Amino acid sequence: MRHNKYKYESKGLLRDGLLFLILFPLVMGGGAWALGLTNHSVVFGLSAIYLVDLLLLAWLFLVTWDKTVMIGDKAMGFSSRLFYQEYIPRDITQITLLANQKGREFLRIRTNNKYYYLDDQYQPWESLLTDVERFAKECNIASNLVD
Q: pTM above 0.70?
C-alpha cells in the first residue's frame, strides 16, 4: 500500500504521566504523613493506587507509542506497537469532522464495527485532513469533509 503516514505525538502524554508518577507519592504521601495517617492500611492503599496508576500509564504509553495513521489510494490503516488494522473503502461507513466545546477539531472514522478518533496530535494535522478528504471523495465514503 503506497501511503502517507501521520504519526501521533505522545510527548505531552508522556510528560504528564511522568509528572503524575513523581508528584503522586510526594503529595499523597506527604499529606498522609502530615495528617498522621501512617498506619499500614493507609500506606498499603496508597501503594496499591500508585501501582494501578503505574500499570494504566504503562499500558497507555504502549498503546500510543509509535501510533500512526496511513492513508493510501485504496485503503486506510491504523497501527501502533500492539496492533495493525487496515480498512478498504467498503469497510469504512462514515468520516466526520467534529469539534468539541473548546473548538478543537477531531475526526471520527466509523468502520463496520469500530470508531477511530483522530485529533491534532497526529502530525501534520492539515495534511491529514486534506488526505482524508481526498480519500473520502475518491472512494465515495459518506463524509462532511466532501462538498
A: yes
